[in-house]
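I have been asked to look over a protein record a colleague put together. Alongside the sequence sits a line of tokens, each denoting a local backbone shape. I have pasted the whole thing underneath without changing anything:
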Amino acid sequence: MSSKSLSIVGGGINGLAIAWRLAQAGCVVDVYDTGAIGPGTRGATWAAGGMLAASIEAEPGEEALTALCLTSQQQWPAFRDELETASGISVGYRDEGIMVVATNRDEATALRHHYDYQIGLGLKLEWLNPADARRREPHLGRNIAAAVFSPGDHQVENRDVLRALVVAAEQAGVRLHPHTPVEALETTDSRANGLRIAGEVHNTDAVIIAAGAWSGGLAGIPPEAKPPVRPLKGQMLALQMDPAAPILRHTIWAPTTYLIPRLDGRLLIGATVEERGFDETITAGGLLALLDTAWRALPTIEELPVVETWVGFRPTSRDDAPIFGPTSVEGLFLATGHHRNGILLAPLTADAVSLAVLGQDMPEIARPFTLDRFAPKAKTKAVA
């Protein structure tokens, strides 16, 4: 057991999961957030869709990231069970699988190409013809040209995960400090030793920055340890289905849009991808783009009421992959840059960063994702 005093900047899923793990290890942990922690937060965790989609999101050139996501996906059932036991809160884990649909011949050709790549990685996916797809989801449009079914890709109610983590963390002894902006990181002799809050320095043995898209903006971070993370805006909306007779059971991916059915009858539709900084505006064009693509896949949504619209900011690094673990500044650790995979990667992030903070090696699969990969490469002179 450790008696380290630790401070975490950011009260989203990864900050809280790390705090929970470190408190379980005997550390004294404080979590600070500019806004609310849990319900009422405006962070990426609350705004997310909650998909655990390691297989269907596998992309060429991202094989290391796919392996990382698959590993964390396999950890989710045990993480869910432990979290629900500790908190007494169900996190809405659903294992029906995810379907990707093509709504015309060109989309079907692109889907087949992507499917062939993913099958080549050994991922367990099924190719569906239009009739097969509609047998699984009868309300799909008659224009569906093909589909892929991924039985191993699931979803979780991310807002309930956040609620559960708040309870589990506090019961483990974590001290939460909502509405407490951190003004700066304090360092002495290239070592992180505290945070400045309301003009006072709070000393600590180590600092973990898990502030999502805001992680690179904290004053006092030395340039070599500043994570290259930016906000990637996403607009979303929710429609209301009849919980007793939902029109959709599986999560559906259509080109540029996904539809996620919740147990309470809500149907989430998201998300735009916009380089707009921290612009929180809901736009007609954004909602139109989402609804148009969703309607082409599932026409019956046109009768459903809109019950919520919102904006989230994906914390996106230069290579769309997470940045976690130690930095060149002793005592400073990162857990940010998760892009679209913050929920999926939470179990692995919590374990890997906690091990690093406790002075142990991170799992081998996590080591390529430290900040070191962005360090300038030394130039070598050609030998005449």
Q: What stands out?
A: The chain has a mean pLDDT of 96. The chain has two domains: 5-86+158-228+318-374, 95-153+230-317.
